[in-house]
Amino acid sequence: MALIVLAADKGSPGVTTAAVALAAVWPRRALLAETDPAGGDLVYRSAAAHGGMLNPNTGMLSIAATARRGLVPDQLWDHVQPLSGGLEVLVGLGIAEQAAGLAGLWPTLGSAFAQLGDSPNAPADVIADCGRISGDTSVVELFPHAALVLLISRTEPEAIARVRDRAAALSTKLHGGPRGAGSLGTPLIGVVLIADPNNSGKLVNQVNDMLVHAQTGARVVGTLAEDPAGAEQLAGRKRGRLDKSMLIRSARKVTSDLYQQYGAAWAVPSQVQGQVQGQGQVQNQGHQVPGQMPGQPGQQPGHAGGHPGHAGAGR
């Protein structure tokens, strides 16, 4: 099982919305970790499973004290809170100043996140919302422990140029230099575009050509629909059939494609996982209902109906 990190270079492309959407439809048990050093959003916008507010002191803030003494992967669950729809989250920091308490602990957290899938008690994939990153962002210390780094980008020319440059910079940092498309390293660097579904195919080809030409070693792994109404439903601010939204349908397509391509490699224990490649499907694991929509308790994948709760954030 795997650590998947999501990040963006600049602006507000919707990293949190993408992270919540992907975690909500993930084929196996998933833990959503808000690891943005600038602070998280879910504690302000989401309802806990008991109907009240999430506890801002239980999550990344509380885990810092534990991690200083060493961190066993199963200890992560002591700091997790379920949202109203069942999605399990490690809520983020309240303000950026609190990130000082995590200084030097990111590699410890990254190792625990990556090894949680090997837990004999409660295995899960971890989807980490890292927010906006730059060259000196401390959360990048998580990335060497990840199986996949997903850069979220919109499709304006300047956004695409920035994601190209960020992918190239990460390739140098993580892999030691530029890489061609046939020379992939771990973690793999992928790009997820937030795009108009009617125009996404052409854009994917154009962005892939740009990434290959720049020898980033990255490629577009999927597109999420630019769906403001679906994002509002996911955040619990609007009623509607969330499972029928373009956002959730596109999120299911992205997760399905990721598992078809990389799922077999992710089934290998993290301690011996080598280069992530190959194809294969992995069966659902864990006791949480996978694919459950936020605010949709008890629904099976593909059957999440009714009205969404307060289990998302749009940033």
Your description of this structure?
By secondary structure, the protein is an alpha/beta fold. The chain has 8 helices and 8 strands, in the order E-H-E-H-H-E-E-H-E-E-H-E-H-E-H-H. Strands 3-4-2-5-1-6-7-8 form an 8-stranded mixed sheet, with helices on both faces. Strand 3 (81-82) and strand 4 (88-90) form a beta hairpin. The radius of gyration is 18 Å and the shape is globular. The two termini are 27 Å apart. Residues 272-315 have low confidence and may be disordered.
SSE order and pairing:
Layout: E1 3-8, H1 15-24, E2 30-34, H2 42-45, H3 60-67, E3 81-82, E4 88-90, H4 106-115, E5 125-132, E6 148-153, H5 157-175, E7 188-195, H6 200-213, E8 219-225, H7 228-234, H8 246-266
Parallel strand pairs: 1-5, 1-6, 2-4, 2-5, 6-7, 7-8
Antiparallel strand pairs: 3-4
Summary?
With 315 residues, the chain is α/β, with parallel strands linked by helices. The protein has helices at 15-24, 42-45, 60-67, 106-115, 157-175, 200-213, 228-234, 246-266, and strands at 3-8, 30-34, 81-82, 88-90, 125-132, 148-153, 188-195, 219-225.
Largest sheet: number of strands, sense, barrel closure: 8 strands, mixed
**Strands side by side in the biggest sheet:** 3-4-2-5-1-6-7-8
Q: Give the CA-CA distance, first to last residue.
A: 27 Å
Shape: globular
| Assembly of the depicted chains | single chain
Nearest-integer average pLDDT: 82
Order of helices and strands: EHEHHEEHEEHEHEHH
Radius of gyration based on Cα positions: 18 Å
Strand content: 5-15%
> Which regions contain 5 or more consecutive residues with pLDDT less than 50?
272-315
Q: Considering DSSP H and I runs of 4 or more, what fraction of the residues is helical?
A: 25-40%
- Helix segment tally: 8
Write down how many β-strands occur, each being a DSSP E stretch of 2 or more residues. 8
